[in-house]
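Homework-ish question, so no full write-ups if that breaks the rules, but can someone show me the predicted structure for this set?
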Amino acid sequence: MSGRRLTWRFVRVWQRDLTVYRKIWKISLLPPLLEPLLYLAAFGVGLSGLVGAMPHRGTLVPYLEFIAPGLLAINIMQNAFFETTYGSFVRMVYQKTFGAILATPLSVEEVIAGEIAWAATKSVIATAIMMAVITPFGLIQYPEGLLILPLALLGGLAFGAVGMVFTATLPSIEVFNLPTFLFVTPMFLFGGTFFSTERLPPWAQVVAQGLPLTHLAEAARGLALGRLEVALWWNLAYLTVFLGVVFPVALVLMRRRLIE
Amino acid sequence: MGGSWRVEGPGGKKPPGHVVVEAQGLVKAFGGARAVDGVSFRVRRGECFGILGPNGAGKTTTVRLIHGFSPLTAGSLRVFGLDLATDGRAIKARIGVCQQDNNLDPDLTVQENLEVFARYFDLPRREARARADRLLAFIALEHRRHAPVSQLSGGMMRRLVLARALINDPDLLILDEPTTGLDPQSRHQVWGKVQELKGRGLTVLLTTHYMDEAARLCDRLLIVDHGRVLVEGPPAELVATHVGQEVIEIEDPHPELVSRVRAEGWSHEELPHRLVVYAGAGEEVYRRLGEACGRGGCALRVATLEDVFLKLTGRDLRE
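A: Not a homework solution, just the prediction itself:
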């Protein structure tokens, strides 16, 4: 097919996913609603007293205020990543949904862009719910905190695109344990989420600066604490460049996988 | 006839002769293997054109080339006078495709499957709803419109796939093995719908390995094997040309009888426990064979497309 492969038509695939979501939204709401409460209870009651405060860009931040944006960042990552890994893989391989759509005027690129856009949308929805839950605890400063919503869109696109790269390359659904274990879990633990990367040994700090979740968590923390600092721009630039690289890779690999 | 599947305009029969699909020297290679190896054909407006072949003959690969799923290795493919290589999107907007896999959207209901698909063709919401209603009536599934597709029977799912392929009011309908795996009742229902569409002037391109299906639905067909065209023509003409009007079938033939058929030089096919004699055999051969047959087990019957098919593609089992 010549002409532009990626047009506004990707919205049609996004709409399809939204239609499905609207049927099952009650179930989809529960995790972002309850998970932060569980985490805050566990860390707030269990760890907060032990840890006290965490260093963040030269100041000490009470532990609950420190991890709340970390939890938001994890939530953004997981919603998008699992949507374009397990979700998209099931639609591609088992439900043959992509195959059906490709017999219409839509292109592979539009299908994949629509899926990634939907994954990011899920991140935004989940973030909004989670923010509503933790705001009463005074863990998010407004109005700066509202900027976490567009940040969730950027982070959701980035992690949705990474997930799609794995979906384009992995042979079967069982193998998805691998990126979860090797990619998601280390970031979950060491990406500046539950403790400051400043506490890592120097070499590990360098590694952590290469992880997208570190930048997402740092940016979310800056916004939640109401600190619009220069470092925020560096985090946003990293995520934007990351998306700019990974997104086209996902499209190319998916075309290779789907078009025989 | 009720409401036409066409939503606007008179629809109806179009003058025949206009070429809808023009395929020339199609080649599709996967790695070194050529799944389609120099296939050429033309589908004319308003006809039902069949591609008949055993499993693995390249039927599905050929139609996939047309619905833009897979790029050509060599050859040229024009649909509606447009080049598939440059106008894929415009072509796909005007075709309806029933793929072989059941790829209805299991996350959606019957009606939602039609309406969501309509969005891929940019149909406005009201228009999509109107077409979905009409198509649900056409396939007699109005009473199940809110059912999840997983609750449908195999025949209902096939009819829904057919309805979904019609949502964009296509000028060409591609059916890839539309009745494989269906029970006889469901097959007849699907055939009935296809014949109805054909009667309204819709151009149909069909792949199948069922002879009765090809004979019943197709105005003209190709028989393909190993990615190549063996013969092309109207089903009745192919039968007349390649096996004649009648064949004689003998069950558990005596070895002497087999050697006599060989000696007479009659065109025939030796199967396990069965001997089929072609050659426009007719009464005379039948009478002479009948004498040799002895008791029963010898039948003169009308030749069918299946005889042509087996004669041309051989009898090896295809996996």
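Now go work out the reasoning yourself. Hint: The interface with chain B takes residues 1-3, 9, 12, 15-16, 19-20, 23, 95-97, 99-107, 259-260 of chain A (CB under 8 Å).
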